[in-house]
Write a structure and sequence with these properties.
Shape of chain A: elongated
Oligomer: homodimer
Structural class of chain A: alpha/beta
Radius of gyration of chain A: 25 Å
Strand order of the largest sheet of chain A: 19-18-17-21-20-23-22-24-25
Distance between the termini of chain A: 88 Å
Largest sheet of chain A: 9 strands, mixed
Largest interface: A-B, 47 and 47 residues
Chain lengths: 574, 574
């Protein structure tokens, strides 16, 4: 048996990560086709190989696996992000495309899958579970995902989980939703598939009720106590950047909970991706906070792969997919080479390649707005002819995407609101999916921009057109420009575009190179800051102003929403 | 939320095993229907419950899960063994019914599944991968499992794995077998299902070749070094009684390999089952050898459940199946109560119930032997007319089921062998499936019985009728009696049945109470010992004398087999 056997790839002189022993071992590694063939720890067998790479003592790690992320958060297409993932050593992701589903429904998901099918990394999908987030006359979306759609997606080989179940309050009240119908269907038919949760602040019996429905992970932000409750009740904990808390990491180490947590990115904006990296950056940060490298690697490779039942991913051992990276140091996950299914997909210094025009034509023509809708800005009718009225306004918070509701006095003349004199910005959400032409009007105050206009079609989750400004003409200019671009993010002041990013695919993502998207996004972000926006992530803050499941008051094309009550409220306090 | 909610079962004052923290915690546990609802660690919520059980500080453990076992090894039907499993706290098993498959093919598997469908424990199945073990004119079986059968079984909800792939030598030579065709089919279609291995002594590149085919567990007997190689290469290690080695258990502890190994029973004879218990006994033994109880429980519950992708089994947490047992001490797994899917299935002192007549009629009429076949004993023709010949005989080993080949000189008179004068026993394997009426003749020496006759239809894996004795008349009596019983195990001396166990279902299992099967089996065993059998398990030794994949020489209905060469050999040395 010790003859010169033929293999496709032979990595020599590596320090190979062993996922089972959680340590590095010196070995030569033979690959046959897509899979690892032999980890030769004695380094004694001489193969004949199509490709031999001597890595001269460098470290060989399984490719990273990010099981909770949303590609659209980077405002990129699957094809566009794949190269960025590869160069960061991320060889497998599970994305939940609820943003595109809100624009295009089932077709949105299917076209995302199709467009990413030929990328060098493995992109798996979660079934969007909450599209629309709330619906029921409180928001208009371009598409929805119902029970039948979920069943249809379940049959696809790229689909590995049910995506983020966001309507957790309704779930624990055992309301009859499309997603609860689907969860029941899965259970009654003995279909086992991971169900990704989203349940910030749920604890004790309420947390148990959520788990009882079969939703068994959470990736949202928690206190230490909340995180512990999740782990001790068998919930899989997905740790994103803002959850990298030393006390929590110590608790995981102390109790050896490496099977029950994984690092994830959730949302990564394009400029952060270009500047800092992807999942590799989260893992590095965990190590910087004292998490041992051998454990951190495990929680970003083999554990997440198994969470998603991707049993042949995430470790370097015979029979598993040959997905790996070569790094100089195990604490700095900046790969020199990355292989996927036995083929090199990245080598340091490589330039990235990506394809455009991967979506059907109507995806590039998804923003429908009319001049008639813009007329809604011109005169906001008050319930009195003259004097002063009390108006409900949204107070933007500087540190959170949650807002507060507040009351503002505004003058009225000739039956019209003189909002320009109130210090508030006029905000509008314009239905842009060609459904009903609705326009929701509201007012902003607080940490938002103080002057100029910001507008976008990247408006969670319905992705209608949100515009907020200090004068109607600039706002109209912004809307017209977004129509021309067929989606994007931009700022305007004094009749001029200050900064803009085009998002022409579904009005939410771009097929341009990552650097271009990241660069333009940075400019919009900086421009917003210059206009007075005071949030640590103005893009995230602004894009969430229309999200009707995020407290306290939000604006949709159907008007002002009191989120806790789940009701539309009038602009005027009577 | 803190009102008096209604649940079906409320276990109060328990010390509950937490699989994630691997420790016991005081809690009340609420069950709703089939599943755990809430683990109330603060013991503060007052439920209204259909059934309240105060366990007064006793220990609550997940039901044990045995993922590698063969029900037929206990000579019981699924229905017969279920009660025994329940009283030993075993709530879930994965069985691979290759014995019945050798008798009845696909129908054998399907009828095993059907017959056990209404038992109180969960019985899952592995697809028999090696039926017949070798075939190709070297043994006649009643049925076979081919690629199409495997695909058909794969579609059944009770099937969770591919069962024991025993032909490991052929596998690593990449021979074209039914099972290799099936493994390729699974991989090409991205179908993920655990594949149970069987590869004693394989190491290094050969072991890697086996893993490369996607076979990723082993439960056979190993040296410490062989076991370590399995673990470090990502092979799941199933630890049966004879592998409970202290050095290995220490290695597992030192490296925290609790995810990668599980305790299993493999084969448990009925008398051992009655006397010592089942998987609970293996776990107790591991604890006695210093394996910490909290880890031992984990490796017999949550780890094996996940190995078999039974993600809602094996732990006490919200949303999981309410399978559990109550014991007084966690180191003595003799349950006072056992619950399965929220319902009590055993209470100490309960008598066991089981059903008969669960199989189709032909399963009770599976032993076909003719007087013409018996005539084969009467005169064994030698290649000479008179003098002495050298005969190949099977030398039975006292400690192993492996045999050795040896040469014996025997007198010949009138062209017939005078074997009675040689000190050997005459042995015959009589084809009894109604296929071809073949009779294989051989001779036994060594640790087998020295006088009298032993006969059985429980003859691995083809389960033809094996008889070996010191005179032809007793042998004929034994065969006729087995025909009357339609299968069984018995001893005969001087024209009298000494002990017998009837195995009328497929000639290999019984629907009688476990105590009756165990008692009769014990009597047969003792009778064999009285007749001079010197093996520690004469039943196992005798039943393996026909197994043509177990070295060195074995006897089938097709004659004497040299196992290493995989060839039939002549009885006479020429």
């Amino acid at each position: 048996m010790e003859g010169k056997e033929r293999v496709s790839l032979w990595i020599r002189n590596a320090r190979v990560y062993n996922s089972f022993l959680k340590k590095f071992e010196r070995a030569n590694v033979a690959v046959r086709g897509e899979r690892f063939y032999y980890i030769d720890r004695r380094q004694e067998i001489d193969f004949e190989a199509e490709e031999i790479v001597d890595v001269m003592g460098r470290y060989m790690l399984p490719g990273l696996t990010d099981i909770h992320m949303h590609i659209e958060s980077s405002m990129m297409t699957p094809s566009a992000i794949a190269g960025c993932l590869a160069e960061n050593g991320v060889t497998t992701v599970v994305t939940e495309p609820h943003e595109m589903a809100n624009v295009k429904g089932l077709r949105g998901v299917e076209e995302m899958i199709r467009s990413g099918a030929d990328t060098p990394v493995d992109i798996y999908y979660g079934i969007p579970a909450s599209v629309p987030t709330i619906g029921d006359g409180m928001e208009t979306t371009g598409g929805r995902i119902d029970f039948a759609d979920m069943r249809r997606l379940l049959a696809r080989p790229e689909v590995v989980c049910v995506g983020e179940v966001m309507n957790y309050r309704q779930i624990i009240q055992e309301k009859d939703l499309e997603i609860t119908k689907f969860l029941r269907y899965l259970r009654e038919n003995g279909i086992d598939i991971p169900v990704e949760g989203h349940c910030p602040s749920l604890v004790d019996l309420e947390l148990a009720k959520y788990l009882y429905q079969g939703i068994d992970s959470d990736h949202t932000e928690h206190t230490f106590e909340e995180a512990c409750q999740r782990l001790e009740n068998g919930m899989f904990l997905e740790i994103q950047d803002k959850m990298l808390d030393e006390k929590l990491l110590q608790y995981i180490r102390k109790n050896g909970l490496y099977e029950y947590c994984a690092f994830v990115t959730d949302d990564t904006m394009a400029d952060t991706l270009i500047r800092e990296g992807h999942l590799n950056r989260i893992v590095e940060k965990a190590m910087e906070k004292g998490f041992p490298p051998e454990k951190a690697i495990y929680c970003a490779t083999y554990t997440p792969a198994r969470r998603m039942r991707l049993f042949d991913h995430g470790c370097v051992s015979p029979g598993k997919l040959a997905d790996f990276m070569i790094v100089a140091e195990p604490v700095r996950l900046r790969p020199e080479m990355v292989y996927k299914r036995g083929r090199q997909i990245y080598r340091k210094g490589d330039s990235r390649q990506q394809k455009k025009g991967k979506f059907p034509k109507d995806f590039y023509k998804s923003v429908v707005v009319s001049e008639a809708q813009l007329a809604a800005f011109d005169g906001i009718h008050a319930p009195i002819q003259s004097g002063e009225v009390t108006v409900r306004a949204i107070e933007v918070s500087p540190h959170s995407t949650h807002t507060r509701g507040c009351h503002i006095r505004m003058p009225v003349k000739d039956g019209l609101l003189r909002w320009e004199e109130s210090g508030c910005l006029l905000a509008a959400v314009i239905e842009r999916h060609g459904k009903n032409g609705a326009v929701g009007i509201g007012f902003l105050t607080g940490a938002c921009h103080k002057k100029g206009t910001v507008a976008t079609t990247y408006c969670h989750d319905h992705h209608n057109l949100l515009v907020a400004g200090d004068n109607v003409e600039d706002m109209k200019l912004a809307v017209r420009r977004l129509f021309e671009l067929q989606g994007g993010y931009l700022t305007v002041q004094d009749g001029k575009i200050l900064a803009e990013l085009a998002l022409p695919v579904g009005g939410i993502v771009s097929e341009c190179p990552a650097e271009e998207i990241g660069g333009n996004l940075s400019q919009v972000r900086q421009s917003m800051e210059k206009l007075g926006y005071e949030h640590e992530n103005p893009i995230m803050s602004f894009s969430c102003l229309g999200l009707p499941v995020s407290p306290e008051w939000k604006l949709t094309d159907q008007g002002l929403i009191n989120v806790k009550r789940g009701q539309r409220v009038s602009l005027f306090v009577s």
